[in-house]
Amino acid sequence: MWDLVLGDRRINSLRLVARMWNGTRGIHRLGGAVVPEGNQKKERTMLQFLTNHFYDVEALRGYLLQREMSKVHMKNRSFTWLEEQHGPYCAGAFFILKQGGAVKFRDKEWIRPDKYGHFSPEFWNFQEVPVEAVDASDCEINYEGLDNLLLLKELQSLLLQRCPHVDDWCLSRLYPLADSLQELSLAGCPRVSERGLACLHHLQNLRRLDISDLPAVSNPGLTQILVEEMLPNCKVVGVDWAEGLKLGPEEQPQDTASPVLA
Amino acid sequence: MIRRVLPHGLGRGLLTRRPGTRRGGFSLDWDGKVSEIKKKIKSILPGTSCDLLPDTSHLPPEHSDVVIVGGGLLGLSVAYWLKKLESRRGGIRVLVVERDHTYSQASTGLSVGGICQQFSLPENIQLSLFSASFLRNINEYLAVTNAPPLDLQFNPSGCLLLASEKDAAAMESNVKVQKQEGAKVCLMSPDQLRNKFPWINTEGVALASYGMENEGWFDPWCLLQGLRQKVESMGVFFCQGEVTRFVSSSQRMLTTDDEMVILKRIHEVHVKMDHSLEYQPVECAIVINAAGAWSAQIAALAGIGKGPPGTLQGTKLPVEPRKRYVYVWHCPQGPGLETPLVADTSGAYFRREGLGSNYLGGRSPTEEEEPDPTNLEVDHDFFQEKVWPHLALRVPAFETLKVQTAWAGYYDYNTFDQNGVVGPHPLVVNMYFATGFSGHGLQQAPGVGRAVAEMILQGSFQTIDLSSFLFNRFYLGEKTQENTTM
């Protein structure tokens, strides 16, 4: 009888520990807009319960969050020394490649890091060759990291798809690239809202803008119309105009033709 | 086995006994006796409310190191930085006293929410730049475990200031100072203005300055809530009550010129509760006056200004409430998504609000037109006569607009030079000011909070030097004045 009781308690405590460990993996997400529901919800409340009742748990969670943030800061430090040694194009390219993005110099091929994060050092020779295109999708670039990106003065194409730390403040920093930037993609960035899109009006040479799948934008259809009015020479790829009216799930992003002004 | 035995025994002992059945003819009312015994045990056991001492949970604590009068953005900012910069965790006990927990008349909640670096004084520019970086990294500064991240709804659309012929030279020199301090501002000629913003009518505009980064507007209520949450989690006490009295002690001292000065030190603050005569004397070491539009009353309670006029004792705190109106209107053909916060040559300003062609704005009245600050009633005629004509002149699309709503709020207006008062009072040595920002309090609050906290904890301003904002300038007559149209 007693063995059964103890056995139950042992199993209960194991389940408790397992939940905690799953929960700590959840700490590492830095407050993204999309929160997974379902069976993670129970672990969340257990973690929240413990945080509310124990100072140790609260302090541990605070410490882990600070550590995550400082990791992102380290990744986005300024490479001023590299800029002095090798010129702005190489420094900017190195920054992107280190983050896991891809770089294309003018008249050269795309340079991408492989799955281990290694990339070929041939670009150190391209000191005078400007960078034409940058694919920084899924990279952890934030506001400070844009210091390095803005070194690439003749950038023509910038892809910032699904970047978790690119927000409205970052978009307000893109105006120095106005002369050369022709393509910009912000698809899937969780922190970009229509307020950040409003400051893209400086980029008058933009010809293609992708604003599909932005969860923080409150009214995608209306935002698309307003952005198209703001940038008349640009093809804005996003959602369908009738998006706000549909009750069903989002459609695939389609290329919108010339806007019909009412 | 034991489990089966226990309830059986209990049942036998107490629960199954009927009154007056088994034992003799006593009508013992055993059930009632048991419930009485249970009640007595419950009232003696700890953790339950015991009526031996009266309930004082609504009163503030009896001792506090720092008492901050005013729980708006500036008061909370000072509390935050005091807790952040203290050298030992839990080293300083801070109490924030706020008269109105709904913040119905507080300037913070009623503010338009703009932030802009286009000032002429370097200190103001630095304060605004720091506030921009504070807002940008708000989720690092104000992170509370278990709370969702803050979304300030910041619009980085920038600020556009227009200048007529006579103000153009001043604007040029201001922009030079701003660029030196690190603000990203550029000058635009009327042609460039027309190119960029085709909906502007550039008649009467000689020059414009446009801030491109770190400028725009945000939701001040969200900032207030976030600060309040963080500050509570850092261990600051809050109390809803009104400061009615300062008990201070004086000391006569001689200056180097053998003049007698009376230095006062506040050592008790009487906090009166709402709708009652009950008050709590709070013993304190430092008092911070962050009461916004009502700072002059608090200063008068401390005896500031009681003396012959023209002397330091007789210099009052020249901060008074001034009413300002904000109107929200709808204009379907109005300027588009790229509209910055536009401040016209006449003093009228407007900005976009949301996605639906709504705009809000207003205008500062001249000295003669100052409305009566005793209430927050809105004067709609002011919009018709004094605001709309200027707006319609500057933006022709605004000729057809429809006012949706309006509200009024107070500026804590510094009648001396329209800039803030920061730092200690020379005679009441432990009262620090953080008030009088005349409409810029929102954008300077984080920087000012840090400056006051540095002054208290380290004795001097460490990061941004706000010595030109000290109280002494009112006595010495040195105005720290802005020469912009803002």
The second-level CATH architecture of the largest domain in chain B is: 3-Layer(bba) Sandwich
Number of strands of chain B: 18
Average of the residue pLDDT scores of chain A:
79
CATH topology type of the largest domain in chain B: FAD/NAD(P)-binding domain
Q: What is the string of SSEs of chain B from the N terminus onward?
A: HHEHEEHHEHEHEEHEEEEHEEEEHEEEHH
**Weakly predicted, low-confidence segments of chain B:** 5-17
Oligomer, anyone? heterodimer
Q: Tell me, what's the shape of chain A? A: globular
Radius of gyration from the alpha-carbon trace of chain A, in angstroms:
23 Å
The whole-number mean of residue pLDDT values of chain B reads: 90
Structural class of chain B: alpha/beta
Query: How much helicity do the residues of chain B have?
Result: 25-40%
Can you tell me the CATH topology of the domain at 155-240 in chain A?
A: Leucine-rich repeat, LRR (right-handed beta-alpha superhelix)
Total helix count of chain B?
12
User: What would you give as the CATH superfamily of the domain at 155-240 in chain A?
Assistant: Ribonuclease Inhibitor
The first-to-last residue Cα distance of chain B is: 84 Å
Subcellular location (chain B): Mitochondrion inner membrane
Cofactor (chain B): FAD
GO cellular component, one term (chain B): mitochondrial inner membrane
Main location (chain B): mitochondrion
Could you explain how this protein is built, in words?
The complex is a heterodimer of chains A (262) and B (486). In chain A, helix 8 links the parallel strand 5 and strand 6. By secondary structure, chain A is an alpha/beta fold. The N terminus and C terminus of chain A are likely disordered. Chain A has a seven-stranded mixed beta sheet with strand order 2-1-3-4-5-6-7, with helices on one face. Among the domains of chain A are: 72 residues, no CATH class; 86 residues, Leucine-rich repeat, LRR (right-handed beta-alpha superhelix), CATH 3.80.10.10. Chain B has twelve helices and 18 strands. About 3% of the residues of chain B have low confidence. Chain B starts with a helix and ends in a 10-residue tail after the last helix. Chain B has three domains: 272 residues, FAD/NAD(P)-binding domain (3-Layer(bba) Sandwich), CATH 3.50.50.60; 53 residues, no CATH class; 88 residues, D-Amino Acid Oxidase, subunit A, domain 2 (D-Amino Acid Oxidase, Chain A, domain 2, 2-Layer Sandwich), CATH 3.30.9. In chain B, helix 3 packs parallel to helix 11. The radius of gyration of chain B is 29 Å and the shape is globular. With 486 residues, chain B is of the alpha/beta class. In chain B, the strands form three sheets. In chain B, strands 1, 2, 8, 9, 10, 11, 17 and 18 form an eight-stranded mixed beta sheet that branches. An eight-stranded mixed beta sheet of chain B has the order 5-6-4-13-14-15-12-16. Chain B: It is a single-pass membrane protein. Chain B: Keywords: Electron transport, FAD, Flavoprotein, Membrane, Mitochondrion, Mitochondrion inner membrane, Oxidoreductase, Respiratory chain, Transmembrane, Transmembrane helix, Transport. Chain B: GO terms for molecular function: oxidoreductase activity. Chain B: One of its GO terms (biological process) is mitochondrial respiratory chain complex I assembly. Chain B: It comes from Rhinopithecus roxellana (Golden snub-nosed monkey). Chain A: Interacts with incompletely assembled mitochondrial NADH:ubiquinone oxidoreductase complex (complex I).
